[in-house]
Write a structure and sequence with these properties.
Blueprint (H helix, E strand, L loop, with lengths): L12 E3 L23 E5 L2 E5 L5 E3 L4 E2 H19 L4 E5 L9 E3 L12 E5 L5 E5 L4 H9 L6 E2 L12 E8 L11 H17 L5 E4 L5 E6 L6 H18 L4 E2 L12 E4 L26 E2 L1 H6 L11 H8 L17 H4 L4
Helix pairs in contact: 1-2
């Protein structure tokens, strides 16, 4: 277990090591049987039990739990590199996309001995063993728990206080009763404003649809600043954007004070322990939308949330590849945010 004492800005962590041989780095091809309720698969030398495969997860679309697991198996080659070595917050939908859900941080027991965990000590002295998705068997195991979307930490487990990204969640402000909804075109407009402002600071940025109502904008950064420093910079930047374009942007944290018709540039998701849905995640909404990486040219031309779904995501990935590969650890160039956080309060 972590030995140092956790504080507000320092959280000791430790990666558990699985017993036995490691699974191969490359994802094997998995094809689930169509008419079986449950199946025991051996993948990479590891056995994983998949259950209730025929349970409807989107009844109106004819999508079952087995279809969801098959989707994640198919996109694993591009998805897994973005998940490895990160604690995973589980959001479980045991009765499908329209049913009740619950969050779960601690890896459930019993579990396969090869599931790696990230043990993180919190300021309360509570230590939570988060599961990590290191390979295809672990991915299948997590989705089988009823997780529809995936919510990994921004920092890797060897240092959970220093993230790999700065990011912004662009979310249209919900209208008051009788008010008008913010059109998605305005979210795209705000995304382009952020792109240009970040570019002015020599910060290349990458966008994806949230699969819900908005756009996520990420900046890959050199590990160094603490999560608190990244959050502080994000807050200052978001507030500057709201001052630059007050007619369409707000950075107001309190929901009741957010002006109507604006797009929230949410910086607060940069806080320690927060998560956002990962790229390629299916979202528990109508039409089974997918959080999909997009190019800035696509945003300039105009896209829709409904454009990317579980039905067509695999074909798109096959065509364009992983547009977010530059965000993977070890990829260059990354932004040295330390040059910008000094003096920011």
């Amino acid at each position: 277990m972590p030995s140092a004492v956790a504080t507000r800005d320092r959280h000791p962590s430790r990666i558990s090591r699985p017993r036995g041989k490691s699974a191969p780095a490359g994802a094997e091809s998995v094809v689930l049987p169509k008419n079986e309720k449950s199946v025991e698969l051996t993948v990479g030398g590891r056995t994983v039990m998949l259950t209730n495969l025929q349970k409807p997860f989107w009844p109106e679309l004819g999508i079952t739990k087995g279809d969801l697991i098959q989707y994640y198996a198919d996109v694993a080659p591009v998805l897994l590199p973005h998940l490895r070595d990160r604690a995973m917050v589980m959001k479980r939908y045991p009765h499908g996309a329209h049913g009740e859900f619950f969050f779960m941080k601690r890896a459930p027991s019993p579990r396969p001995e090869w599931i790696q965990t990230c043990s993180i000590e919190h300021e309360s002295e509570n230590i939570i063993d988060f599961p990590m998705i290191q390979d295809l068997p672990a991915l299948l195991w997590v989705i089988n728990l009823g997780c529809i979307d995936l919510n990994p930490w921004y920092a890797r487990c060897d240092d959970v206080d220093r993230p790999d990204y700065l990011h912004f969640d662009l979310d249209p402000v919900s209208p008051v009763k009788g008010g008008r909804s913010v059109p998605f075109a305005r979210v795209l407009e705000v995304a382009l404003i952020l792109r240009d402002a970040l570019a002015h600071l020599d910060m290349p940025s990458y966008a994806k649809t949230t699969g819900s109502r908005g756009i996520h904008v990420y900046v890959p950064i050199v590990r160094g600043p603490t999560q608190k420093q990244v959050w502080t910079f994000a807050k200052a930047f978001a507030q500057a954007m709201a001052q630059q374009a007050p007619a369409i942007i707000t950075a107001e944290y309190k929901i009741a004070k957010r002006p109507q018709g604006r797009v929230l540039v949410d910086y607060n998701q940069n806080a320690w322990g927060r998560t956002l849905s990962s790229l390629y995640s299916v979202r528990p909404r109508n039409d089974a939308p997918v959080s999909m990486p997009v190019t800035w040219k696509e945003i300039e031309k105009g896209i829709t949330i409904e454009q990317f779904t579980m039905k067509n995501a695999r074909q798109r990935i096959k065509k364009v590849g992983d547009l977010w590969k530059p965000l993977l650890p070890g990829q260059q160039p990354r932004v040295d945010l330390m040059q910008h956080v000094q003096g920011v309060k």
